[in-house]
Write a structure and sequence with these properties.
This protein is an all-alpha fold. It contains eleven helices and no strands. The chain is 78% helix and 0% strand. It comes from Nonomuraea longispora.
Length: 241
Protein backbone atom coordinates (compact mmCIF):
# COMPACT_ATOMS: atom_id res chain seq x y z
CA UNK A 1 0.00 0.00 0.00
CA UNK A 2 2.64 2.48 1.02
CA UNK A 3 5.63 2.63 -1.34
CA UNK A 4 8.51 5.02 -1.71
CA UNK A 5 6.21 7.13 -3.88
CA UNK A 6 4.03 8.18 -0.95
CA UNK A 7 6.78 9.68 1.26
CA UNK A 8 8.18 11.36 -1.85
CA UNK A 9 4.83 12.96 -2.68
CA UNK A 10 4.37 14.04 0.94
CA UNK A 11 7.85 15.57 0.97
CA UNK A 12 7.10 17.51 -2.21
CA UNK A 13 3.86 18.66 -0.62
CA UNK A 14 5.80 19.93 2.38
CA UNK A 15 8.05 21.95 0.08
CA UNK A 16 5.06 23.38 -1.79
CA UNK A 17 3.31 24.46 1.41
CA UNK A 18 6.53 25.93 2.76
CA UNK A 19 6.95 28.02 -0.38
CA UNK A 20 3.28 28.99 -0.12
CA UNK A 21 4.01 30.28 3.38
CA UNK A 22 1.97 27.68 5.21
CA UNK A 23 4.69 26.51 7.61
CA UNK A 24 2.37 24.58 9.94
CA UNK A 25 1.09 22.32 7.16
CA UNK A 26 4.60 22.02 5.74
CA UNK A 27 5.94 20.94 9.14
CA UNK A 28 3.29 18.24 9.52
CA UNK A 29 3.92 16.88 6.03
CA UNK A 30 7.67 16.86 6.63
CA UNK A 31 7.14 15.02 9.90
CA UNK A 32 4.87 12.45 8.25
CA UNK A 33 7.43 11.90 5.50
CA UNK A 34 10.19 11.11 8.00
CA UNK A 35 7.99 8.69 9.93
CA UNK A 36 6.88 6.82 6.82
CA UNK A 37 10.34 6.84 5.25
CA UNK A 38 11.84 5.23 8.35
CA UNK A 39 9.24 2.49 8.21
CA UNK A 40 10.05 1.83 4.56
CA UNK A 41 13.63 1.09 5.56
CA UNK A 42 12.57 -1.43 8.20
CA UNK A 43 11.75 -4.42 5.93
CA UNK A 44 15.11 -4.22 4.16
CA UNK A 45 16.95 -4.19 7.48
CA UNK A 46 15.00 -7.18 8.74
CA UNK A 47 15.63 -9.16 5.55
CA UNK A 48 19.34 -8.45 5.88
CA UNK A 49 19.34 -9.72 9.47
CA UNK A 50 18.06 -13.11 8.30
CA UNK A 51 21.21 -13.65 6.23
CA UNK A 52 23.50 -13.08 9.22
CA UNK A 53 24.33 -15.10 12.30
CA UNK A 54 25.13 -14.51 15.96
CA UNK A 55 24.82 -11.24 17.82
CA UNK A 56 25.03 -9.17 14.63
CA UNK A 57 21.85 -10.83 13.38
CA UNK A 58 20.09 -10.13 16.68
CA UNK A 59 21.13 -6.47 16.68
CA UNK A 60 20.14 -5.94 13.06
CA UNK A 61 16.82 -7.70 13.62
CA UNK A 62 16.10 -5.37 16.54
CA UNK A 63 17.17 -2.19 14.74
CA UNK A 64 13.88 -1.49 12.89
CA UNK A 65 11.91 -1.83 16.10
CA UNK A 66 14.05 0.89 17.64
CA UNK A 67 14.47 3.11 14.59
CA UNK A 68 10.76 3.36 13.78
CA UNK A 69 10.20 4.98 17.19
CA UNK A 70 12.80 7.74 16.81
CA UNK A 71 10.99 10.10 14.38
CA UNK A 72 7.90 10.12 16.60
CA UNK A 73 9.91 11.18 19.62
CA UNK A 74 12.09 13.64 17.70
CA UNK A 75 9.10 15.53 16.34
CA UNK A 76 7.35 15.45 19.70
CA UNK A 77 10.41 17.05 21.30
CA UNK A 78 10.42 19.75 18.61
CA UNK A 79 6.69 20.46 18.75
CA UNK A 80 6.36 20.06 22.53
CA UNK A 81 2.65 19.17 22.58
CA UNK A 82 1.11 19.85 26.00
CA UNK A 83 0.52 16.84 28.22
CA UNK A 84 -2.69 17.27 30.17
CA UNK A 85 -4.69 14.83 32.29
CA UNK A 86 -8.46 14.61 32.15
CA UNK A 87 -10.36 11.92 34.03
CA UNK A 88 -13.36 12.01 31.72
CA UNK A 89 -11.13 11.69 28.68
CA UNK A 90 -9.18 8.85 30.28
CA UNK A 91 -12.33 6.87 31.09
CA UNK A 92 -13.71 7.41 27.60
CA UNK A 93 -10.41 6.37 26.01
CA UNK A 94 -10.21 3.21 28.11
CA UNK A 95 -13.79 2.30 27.30
CA UNK A 96 -13.26 2.94 23.60
CA UNK A 97 -10.09 0.84 23.48
CA UNK A 98 -11.77 -2.09 25.20
CA UNK A 99 -14.92 -1.87 23.09
CA UNK A 100 -13.09 -1.61 19.77
CA UNK A 101 -10.84 -4.55 20.54
CA UNK A 102 -13.75 -6.58 21.91
CA UNK A 103 -15.40 -6.22 18.51
CA UNK A 104 -12.62 -8.52 17.31
CA UNK A 105 -13.36 -11.07 20.00
CA UNK A 106 -12.85 -14.11 17.78
CA UNK A 107 -9.26 -13.21 16.97
CA UNK A 108 -8.62 -12.21 20.58
CA UNK A 109 -9.85 -15.61 21.75
CA UNK A 110 -7.75 -17.48 19.19
CA UNK A 111 -4.66 -15.64 20.38
CA UNK A 112 -5.00 -17.39 23.74
CA UNK A 113 -6.00 -20.81 22.41
CA UNK A 114 -3.37 -23.16 23.85
CA UNK A 115 -4.06 -26.01 21.41
CA UNK A 116 -3.70 -23.70 18.43
CA UNK A 117 -0.52 -22.09 19.77
CA UNK A 118 1.08 -25.46 20.44
CA UNK A 119 0.97 -26.38 16.74
CA UNK A 120 2.37 -23.03 15.62
CA UNK A 121 6.14 -22.54 15.11
CA UNK A 122 7.96 -22.00 18.42
CA UNK A 123 8.57 -18.36 19.28
CA UNK A 124 12.04 -17.04 20.06
CA UNK A 125 12.34 -14.93 23.20
CA UNK A 126 13.97 -12.11 21.24
CA UNK A 127 11.13 -12.07 18.73
CA UNK A 128 8.49 -12.11 21.47
CA UNK A 129 10.20 -9.31 23.39
CA UNK A 130 10.66 -7.12 20.31
CA UNK A 131 7.10 -7.61 19.11
CA UNK A 132 5.70 -6.71 22.51
CA UNK A 133 7.97 -3.67 22.69
CA UNK A 134 6.99 -2.62 19.18
CA UNK A 135 3.29 -2.77 20.01
CA UNK A 136 3.60 -0.68 23.16
CA UNK A 137 6.21 1.74 21.80
CA UNK A 138 4.09 2.26 18.70
CA UNK A 139 1.11 3.22 20.84
CA UNK A 140 3.14 5.86 22.67
CA UNK A 141 4.94 7.14 19.59
CA UNK A 142 1.85 7.33 17.40
CA UNK A 143 -0.15 9.24 20.00
CA UNK A 144 2.70 11.69 20.60
CA UNK A 145 2.74 12.24 16.86
CA UNK A 146 -0.83 12.02 15.56
CA UNK A 147 -2.60 13.46 18.60
CA UNK A 148 0.32 15.55 19.82
CA UNK A 149 2.43 16.93 16.98
CA UNK A 150 -0.34 17.05 14.36
CA UNK A 151 -2.74 18.74 16.78
CA UNK A 152 -0.11 21.22 17.94
CA UNK A 153 0.59 22.39 14.39
CA UNK A 154 -2.86 22.21 12.79
CA UNK A 155 -5.51 22.68 15.46
CA UNK A 156 -5.22 26.50 15.63
CA UNK A 157 -6.03 26.87 11.93
CA UNK A 158 -8.09 23.75 11.13
CA UNK A 159 -10.35 23.38 14.15
CA UNK A 160 -12.31 20.11 14.01
CA UNK A 161 -10.64 19.34 10.70
CA UNK A 162 -7.56 18.24 12.61
CA UNK A 163 -9.52 15.21 13.85
CA UNK A 164 -10.03 14.09 10.26
CA UNK A 165 -6.43 14.78 9.23
CA UNK A 166 -5.06 12.98 12.28
CA UNK A 167 -7.21 9.93 11.59
CA UNK A 168 -6.44 9.76 7.87
CA UNK A 169 -2.69 9.92 8.50
CA UNK A 170 -2.98 7.34 11.30
CA UNK A 171 -4.89 4.88 9.10
CA UNK A 172 -2.58 5.32 6.10
CA UNK A 173 0.43 4.52 8.27
CA UNK A 174 -1.24 1.35 9.55
CA UNK A 175 -1.93 0.21 6.01
CA UNK A 176 1.83 -0.12 5.64
CA UNK A 177 2.37 -2.19 8.77
CA UNK A 178 2.87 -5.50 6.99
CA UNK A 179 6.53 -5.53 8.03
CA UNK A 180 5.40 -5.59 11.67
CA UNK A 181 3.13 -8.57 11.08
CA UNK A 182 -0.23 -6.79 11.02
CA UNK A 183 -3.16 -8.62 9.45
CA UNK A 184 -4.75 -6.17 7.04
CA UNK A 185 -8.42 -6.53 6.15
CA UNK A 186 -11.51 -4.36 6.02
CA UNK A 187 -12.43 -5.11 9.63
CA UNK A 188 -8.93 -4.10 10.75
CA UNK A 189 -9.13 -0.80 8.87
CA UNK A 190 -12.57 -0.08 10.32
CA UNK A 191 -11.36 -0.77 13.86
CA UNK A 192 -8.32 1.47 13.68
CA UNK A 193 -10.36 4.21 11.99
CA UNK A 194 -12.92 4.13 14.79
CA UNK A 195 -10.23 4.03 17.47
CA UNK A 196 -8.31 6.93 15.94
CA UNK A 197 -11.44 9.03 15.48
CA UNK A 198 -12.46 8.52 19.10
CA UNK A 199 -8.99 9.27 20.48
CA UNK A 200 -8.64 12.34 18.26
CA UNK A 201 -12.07 13.58 19.34
CA UNK A 202 -11.18 13.09 23.00
CA UNK A 203 -7.95 15.00 22.44
CA UNK A 204 -9.81 17.81 20.69
CA UNK A 205 -12.51 18.14 23.36
CA UNK A 206 -10.42 17.65 26.50
CA UNK A 207 -6.90 18.58 25.40
CA UNK A 208 -5.73 15.45 27.21
CA UNK A 209 -2.90 13.76 25.34
CA UNK A 210 -2.49 11.44 28.33
CA UNK A 211 -6.00 10.10 27.73
CA UNK A 212 -5.20 9.30 24.10
CA UNK A 213 -1.92 7.68 25.13
CA UNK A 214 -3.65 5.55 27.74
CA UNK A 215 -6.37 4.41 25.35
CA UNK A 216 -3.92 3.39 22.64
CA UNK A 217 -1.58 1.61 25.06
CA UNK A 218 -4.49 -0.40 26.46
CA UNK A 219 -5.64 -1.27 22.94
CA UNK A 220 -2.18 -2.54 22.00
CA UNK A 221 -1.79 -4.31 25.32
CA UNK A 222 -4.16 -7.05 24.13
CA UNK A 223 -1.98 -8.22 21.20
CA UNK A 224 1.14 -7.77 23.34
CA UNK A 225 -0.40 -10.12 25.90
CA UNK A 226 -1.11 -12.60 23.10
CA UNK A 227 2.55 -12.54 22.10
CA UNK A 228 3.64 -13.13 25.69
CA UNK A 229 1.17 -15.99 26.09
CA UNK A 230 2.30 -17.61 22.85
CA UNK A 231 5.90 -17.54 24.06
CA UNK A 232 4.89 -19.08 27.37
CA UNK A 233 2.91 -21.86 25.69
CA UNK A 234 5.31 -22.60 22.83
CA UNK A 235 8.79 -21.12 23.38
CA UNK A 236 11.71 -21.87 21.12
CA UNK A 237 14.26 -24.13 22.76
CA UNK A 238 17.70 -24.54 21.27
CA UNK A 239 18.65 -28.10 20.37
CA UNK A 240 22.23 -27.41 21.47
CA UNK A 241 23.31 -29.27 24.56
Amino acid sequence: MRTVVLPTVVTLGAIVFWVARAPDVAAVLAAVATVWAMQLIAPAIRRRSLSMEGWASEVLFAAPFVLFFLPYVAWAVLARPPLAWDWTGAVLALGAAGAVYASNWRQLRLGFDRELLEIMPPLHFTTAALRSYQLLAAAVGQELFYRGVVFEFLRPTMGWGVVVVSTVLFVVEHLGNRWAGAVLDIAYVVRITILSTILATIMFMTGSLWAALLGHVIYNLFPAAQVAWRYRVNPYRSSAT
